[in-house]
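User: I'm curious what two different proteins look like when written out as structure tokens. Can you demonstrate?

Assistant: Sure. I'll show them one after the other, since each token string lines up with its own sequence. Here's the first protein:
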Amino acid sequence: MQIGTEIAEGRMDLLIFFWDPLESQPHDPDVKALLRVAVLWNVPVAMSESSADLLLLGLAQGDYQRRVPDHSNYRANWARS
């Protein structure tokens, strides 16, 4: 929940989240919620060593600028429903 809050408040620009795919995860709903928030706010996510390497190498080039989506229309329409 705390990480999701950091993402939603614009204080996190990327997420590296390693987990063990060979074990069942008792916190699976929390993980899915975190990934949903990351996708909603267009935050790059790495869940393996290879994807983390690529993400960090891309950031090291210095030309990446994350585009934060504008969800105001969605929120306005949802409030009217």
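Here's a second, unrelated protein for contrast:
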Amino acid sequence: MSKNPTGALANPNAARDHARSMGGTVVEAMPTLPPAAPDLPAGVTPDALLWEETLAPGGYATRRLPRGSRLRLLDMKGDACASLQIFNAEMPTERYSFADTVKIQWNAYLAQGKFLLSDMGRVLMSIAEDTTTQDNGAGTHDTFSGTSNAYTNAAKYGDGRNSGQFPNGRDRFLLGAAKHGLQRRDIHAAVTLFKGARIADDGTIQPQIGPFEPDREVVLRAEMEVIVVIANVPHVLDPRPDYTVTPLRLTAWRGPVAAEDDPIRNATPEGLRAFLNVEDYYRR
């Protein structure tokens, strides 16, 4: 082991004492253990809290969430970019499908009341709340572009490695998925929240990058037991030359599953069928 001028690194007892002295240190981006949040919605008690964490720029996080739980994503400073992978926790071969999400809802622009479908026609998560909605009724989200990879980041920023200064979304997903025994082949098309994309008349993708107002939030309701992997990295089509992204706060709590009269469940015949597919899956 190399030795610093004070010799502390060569002394395992000094290293231990230093590590222990850091206990209780609070920084902007970190998980809170045990989870605690000062701003839970009315009616949600502290014992229902499952997860509280703030992701640094370039960070990632993952969690297995029970059916009915809510996941609130908060764009704290207006420039977060939350790309998500979503899996059926019981059977991870079932995962988020861009094609089904768009096809079943006849709409590629997500907002409150929309949902994220699996490749087996079941609702994985629905958008219970969304404060990113624009004048056209759509939120600032992207179902088209996916996330960055090592090559796109290397071309744009000079480095795209997981261990480098400018980590990419795809490799962040790989790290998160690996915590659940999944591999690179399990990484699928991502949905991105807080950064939008529109399709122009000529078919080109027009990114909506911002920055936007701070404290925009999205609340997702888990319609199945899910694994969620989240990467907070710059949008792959962000035109800015610098690696620009700000912290993302995550809060999850237990909640009830969608009731039979739930407005999202009953908004369209196609959506109702997708919810019925979920209910049939759990009728075992």
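A detail about the second structure: Residues 269-281 form the longest helix (13 residues).
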